[in-house]
Amino acid sequence: MIDYAKYRIALRRLFKQKQKVRAAYAKYVTSARKDGKNAKEISSLEYEGWYEEDMINEDISILVTTYLVSKATKHFISIPPRKDEGMWEQCNKISERFVLTNAGISALRSSIRAEAKERRDLLLPLIAALTGIIGIVTGLIAVIKK
User: What is the mean pLDDT of residues 92-105?
Assistant: First the structure.
């Protein structure tokens, strides 16, 4: 649970950072247009903004991949092999690491959810039985005390 909270906080921080970069470069481009800069300078500013956004997107991909792979590893769930087409892609901005694509993320998430459902389905009958036993014991105590 703590891992999930840390993951969500880091993810939220990266998305906020992405919004700030997008807003800042939009402001820079607007300012450059008002100042009468040429198309090449404006294009350069837009490219810088896209590059900064791509770097943050890569950070997000690395974070999500790391979290899902560690969660799958803890529960002995198979991770898609790197040879699978469309499941992995290589980063090219920050590092040369491999990260899951959207299809890979979806497949691994589905596997993790299926495993969690399976574990939950094993515990539900036990919890129902324990609840029944507690009810019986409570009823017996009530009858004996009268």
Answer: 87
Q: What is the enclosing helix (H) or strand (E) of 100?
A: strand 98-100
Report the pLDDT value the prediction gives residue 106, as an integer from 0 to 100: 93
| Residue 16 pLDDT level (bands cut at 50, 70, 90) | very high
- Tell me if 2 sits within 8 A of 71, measured CB to CB: no
Q: Is residue 135 part of a domain?
A: no
What does the pLDDT read at residue 9? 96
Would residue 55 count as lying in a domain?
A: yes
CB neighbours of residue 109 within 10 Å: 15
* Helix H or strand E segment including 88: strand 88-90
Percentage above 90 pLDDT, the chain: 53
The verdict on residue 130 lying in a domain is no
The answer as to whether 128 is a domain residue is no
Contacts of 60 (CB under 8 A, 6+ apart): 11, 14, 15, 18
Q: What domain range is 78 assigned to?
A: 2-120
How many domains, the chain?
1
